[in-house]
Write a structure and sequence with these properties.
The structure holds 2 protein chains of 2 kinds.
Chain A: H1 3-25, H2 41-68, H3 71-102, H4 111-131, H5 136-164, H6 185-221
Helix pairs in contact in A: 1-6, 2-3, 2-5, 2-6, 3-4, 3-6, 4-5
Chain B: H1 2-11, H2 31-35, H3 39-70
The chains are: A mainly alpha, B mainly alpha.
């Protein structure tokens, strides 16, 4: 562990720990229906933030691969999608649990839930596509092109389509930004650190997976 | 390492001043849980789980670095 290059890993752990502690102990607005579950904002929403950032990595490194042909870029792209998908599944599951006790049903076919699920399927298809191609370079190239199209589709599904209709999920319908979340400024002081912390941890896991993949390839080649 | 330790310590001592304390609201919150202090047990459990996971990640990271060094 070198502090100079790995400080952000420690930062991520510290920020998430802070959000675990302050997220349970800090004051939250007293609201009907939500009650204490409003604290879920600190743990459910960061999953999606981290997922989006990892999918950004996936798209950027796919484009980089297409212009460079460097295998390392393809490795980053695939592991970013992998960790992003995992975080997305966690986001869906925590969302379902939360919805069960606030909306009444775990899955109410809400536009946000449906489009989030479709977004997950889009990235699941990325792995199906990769699995179906045997030749490494062809696999990397075709899946990189797919990623470039998958990313805007995911953004539209998660952040645009639900806003065009009415949704039970906060932050939808109209042009809300963050103002429509039932958050006050005290909560933001926990929420933003939590988001940054989970993004850092997501990127860290991705980095570990990339290194693992590359060392495995190296050993297999020798 | 000392600096980081102090940084970690300082991050946890955040508490906000609250000029207008809210009057007793009819909405049900987990006030009893917090006043009896048992919420700390939950925080303790969560922290143990998360710190454990973090240590696990760090150890994987370390082992990978070692492997990478050997294979260079």
């Amino acid at each position: 562990m070198k502090i100079k290059s790995d400080w952000w890993k420690i930062l991520g752990v510290v920020l998430v720990l802070f959000s675990l502690f302050q997220g349970l102990m800090g004051r939250v607005p007293v609201l009907p229906i939500l009650h204490e579950t409003i604290r879920n904002i600190y743990y459910h929403v960061p999953m999606w933030f981290a997922m989006v950032i990892l999918f950004v990595f996936n798209a950027v490194y796919s484009i980089k691969y297409l212009s460079s042909g460097n295998e390392h870029h393809d490795n980053i792209a695939v592991e970013a999608a992998n960790v992003g998908l995992f975080l997305g599944v966690l986001g869906l599951l925590t969302g379902m649990l939360w919805a069960k006790y606030t909306w009444g049903e775990a899955w109410s076919n809400d536009p946000k839930q449906n489009s989030a699920a479709i977004g997950m399927l889009v990235y699941l298809a990325y792995f199906v596509l990769r699995g179906s191609l045997d030749e490494a370079q062809k696999r990397a190239k075709i899946s990189a092109v797919y990623s470039v199209f998958a990313f805007p589709v995911m953004i539209v599904l998660l952040f645009i389509l639900p806003r065009l209709t009415d949704s039970l999920h906060p932050g939808n319908g109209g042009n809300p930004g963050f103002n429509k979340y039932d958050m006050d400024n005290q909560m933001r002081m926990v929420f933003y650190p939590a988001v940054i912390g989970w993004i850092l941890i997501g990127v860290w896991v991705m980095q570990i997976r990339v290194r693992l993949l590359e060392i495995t390839n190296q050993i297999l080649e020798n | 390492m000392k600096k980081i330790f102090i940084l970690c310590l300082l991050t946890f001592v955040v508490q906000w001043a609250f000029a207008q304390a809210p009057t007793a609201a009819p909405v049900e919150m987990a006030d009893l849980l917090r006043s009896s202090g048992k919420i700390y047990v939950v925080i303790g459990t969560i922290s143990v789980v998360f710190i454990g996971l973090a240590i696990y990640l760090f150890s994987i990271d370390k082992r990978l670095s070692k492997l990478e060094k050997e294979h260079k």
